[in-house]
Fold this protein.
Amino acid sequence: MSPRHERPVVLVTGAGRRVGAVIARTLHAAGYDLALHYRRSAADAELLAASLERQRSGSTFTVAGELADTDALPDMVARVLSRYGRLDALVNNASAFYPTPVGTATLAQWNELFASNAQAPFFLAQAATPALREAGGAIVNLVDIYAERPLANHPLYCMAKAALEAMTRSLALDLGPDVRVNGVAPGAVMWPSEGKPYDDQQAMLARTPLKRAGSPEDVAGAVLWLLRDAPFVTGQIIRVDGGRTLSV
Ligand SMILES: NC(=O)c1ccc[n+]([C@@H]2O[C@H](COP(=O)([O-])OP(=O)(O)OC[C@H]3O[C@@H](n4cnc5c(N)ncnc54)[C@H](OP(=O)(O)O)[C@@H]3O)[C@@H](O)[C@H]2O)c1
């Protein structure tokens, strides 16, 4: 392990683009140094890392990896520790999301959806636990309001996110008092970049008390709050959904 780094360090998975990139920028602006994980979005991740490095030298590096490769996850944590000598926070953001209507779902889809949404978050958390304990750190899992109220034709995704919610509560119980573990459950904050899984996005927003989609910044703000400003909060899932789960 290198000498202990002076600023707190966070590993964010799936941080090359979209919500993960906004979480990374937000945490960096708040003084966290970053390990930016990506899988395919190498160009986006390297651009983001370069821009954050320009703002604060020695503050960011990228770590590539397929999260379904469970055996490689301890090494990912080891690379962060070898670079910074500490790990204060883990944000499990990476996720696969697509429909799997009953009658069409395959074991390969099950494995893919559970790998990023439940399996890797657990095994990464397990690998990171000694360092997180030492740092008095925290984990935030990106869940989804669909874990609680399922999205039609997405049973495997909803089940995987429900497993992540259960993991959030289990690890909060098991890792306290050293490590806090919480979740953020976004409503619609960024429509998927491929396909159109929602039948009627406008109708969905009309049923939302705040009458709009949220932003990735709304989600990132909740992640930052849970990591930095909520020392007596653990085992909780914070909905960032404009109140959408209040209506049927
Ligand atoms: N967007 C929303 O409105 C919304 C709503 C509810 C919940 N959420 C949750 O919020 C988080 C971020 O949402 P998002 O829409 O920004 O996510 P996203 O774009 O669907 O996925 C984020 C990243 O996950 C990575 N990823 C997926 N499978 C992977 C695997 N097997 N191994 C390694 N990396 C993998 C991909 O990285 P590469 O591109 O590098 O391959 C991808 O860019 C997710 O957990 C999502 O479920 C989002």
Q: What stands out?
A: The chain has a mean pLDDT of 95. The chain has seven helices and seven strands.
